[in-house]
Each structure stands twice: as C-alpha cells, then as structure tokens.
Amino acid sequence: MDKTESIRQNPPSPPGSPASSLLPDTRNLGVWLRIMLGVNALTMVAALIKAHHLMDWPWVFIQFAAFVEPLLLTALPILATGRDALRRLPPRAAQGAVLLGVMMLTVMLFDFWRFFGMTEARADELARASLLAAAGTGVMLLYFELRARAFPKAVAEARLQALNARIRPHFLFNSLNAVLGTIRRDPKRAETALEELADLIRVLMRDARELTPLSDEIALTRQYLDLEKLRLGERLQVEWHIADVPGETRVPPLMLQPLVENAVYHGVEPLADPGPVRIAFSRDDDAIVIAIVNDATPQAAHSSGNRMALANVRERLSLHFDLEARLDAGFETGRYVVRIRLPVTVPH
C-alpha cells in the first residue's frame, strides 16, 4: 500500500503544479454552493447600483439573473471537467485561463441569444457584460485564493485543539502500567506494546495538514486497541466489519482512533461485564460510511470529553472535505452510534 501522504482539500496535483493551492475544487459541492451564493450576491449589488430607484431593484435583478444564472450553470460544469488541465498550469496562468474562458463563454451566450432573437445587445453592451463577468470571476478567485492561504493555519489550529483534547494522561498512564504488568510474564509482548505506544504517540504529534490513507488509520486504531486489550483483557470485545472500501482513500489523520477511544472509555471501562465495540465500514456510491457502535449511558454520551472529541473530528472533516463529509452521533436501538460519511478520495 502506498503510504505517501497526499492532499489537503483537493486530490494531489502533478509535481510542480502550484495552481492547486489557488484554484477552488470545482468538483466539490461546497465550492459550488459558495460560488453560486457569491455570484448572486455580486449580482444583487450590481442590480442595486444599476437601478434608478429602490422599487426598480427587483426587476433589474431579475434581468441580470436571467443572464448570470445560465452563464454560471454553464461555466461550473466546464470548470469541473477541465480542472485537472488547469491544475497543470502555473497559478496565475490558470487564473488567467479561467477569466478568459468566462469572457469567451459570455460572448458565446450572447451570440446564442441573439441568434434566437432573445436579445438585441450592442457591441458595447456585450463588451461591458464580458468585463463584468470577468470582474465577478476575479472577485471569486480572490476569495478562494485567500481562503486557500488561510486553510493551513485553520488546520493547524484545529490540530492543536485535537491534541489538547485527545492526548489523555489517563490513557498514557494506563498503557504504561499495562506494559509494566506484562514485562515479567511476557517480555516479547511488552516490547511489542511499547513499540505500538511509540507509534501511536508519533502519529499524535504528526502534522495534520496532510491526509493519510484509510488503511493507515485502521492499522493505528488496531494498535491502540491492542494496548487497551492488555489493560482491559476480555472485557474489551471488538468487532471489525470492513466491506468493499478502498484502503488508499485519504482521510484526516486521527479521525478514527479518538472516536474508538471514546467508545472504550465510555462503553467498556465503566462496565464489569464485557463491552462490545463494533467498527463497521461500508461503501455507498462515491462515499465511505464508518459506524462506531458501543454501549454507553446518556450521561457518558453527553460528557464534555465526548462532545469535544466529536467536535474536533467534525471540524477537521469540514476543513478537508467541506459539505461532502459529515459526522452524526446519537442513540440507536439503545446503543450509542457515531457515523461518519466522507467522499472516496484516491490519489491519481
């Protein structure tokens, strides 16, 4: 399995292609939503400037929207289709190509409408419309560029919050105690446990701006559960159900382990009897669904530690995948379920 870490919000660009840091991912639903909201907001402002009276503004906006919406709904699929080609260009060249493409598309739409007698726009009006379309596109490109430059800082801040929430002294203390208790009766197992603990701490301290293969996240969680098995023994019962999911798909690091740790902490530790933890993966079209199921009381489910862990994982999913990923948690048929849905993102 390729262990190369890859992407932030978008799949990786070919080497030497910095355009990916400036251009939005036009295959992302959240990006489409932001572009449509932003362009329509700019259209409202333009209509307000154009209208002679406030009462005329709705009619002027409708006239502008009749031109803007077809242009927008034509440009977005074209940009999504040509996204890989644009990402091979230098950043400013890619932005220039987008601006030029929008202006050309504006001219083509005017010609289409003129051919069917839907407009009688003069050449100066066509030029003005093309420049306005380019200006609106430039504003949106600037917005996404500023957002892309701010993204690593936002991830770093979320990472610090995740570290503060997830490096639990009780976990490290209990894991070391479990290892110490194993040294005399099984030295080789104790040595393996120390190596697993070192790997876990190394991942905890790793940079979180890059996504990691799902297979690595599963392996890390298995290592964590091996450590907990030393401490909890037969009380910890883990069921893994991994269906047809690609192990190379990229996920935020430490997405799974903190949630499984929560399941152990709230669903196994307080119980005298064995506590089952079920971790299931399934494929749903172009998405992966992960479900973590455990026994827990409502008080444990609403504890501050549990809420903080869920909030941190939810925030990192949002930072990396925008609206295409979600995390839900709650009780289903008497058991506590955390369910993650995220897109399949495989590097090319």
UniProtKB/TrEMBL annotation:
Pfam families: His_kinase. The chain crosses the membrane at residues 31-49, 61-81, 93-114, 126-144. Keywords: Kinase, Membrane, Transferase, Transmembrane, Transmembrane helix. InterPro entries: Bact_2-comp_sensor_kinase (IPR050640), HATPase_C_sf (IPR036890), Sig_transdc_His_kin_internal (IPR010559). One of its GO terms (cellular component) is membrane. Signal peptide: none annotated. Residues 1-22 are annotated as: Disordered. One of its GO terms (molecular function) is phosphorelay sensor kinase activity. SUPFAM superfamilies: ATPase domain of HSP90 chaperone/DNA topoisomerase II/histidine kinase. Gene3D superfamilies: Histidine kinase-like ATPase, C-terminal domain. Residues 158-236 form the Signal transduction histidine kinase internal region domain. This is Two-component system, LytT family, sensor histidine kinase AlgZ. It comes from Oryzomicrobium terrae. The gene is algZ.
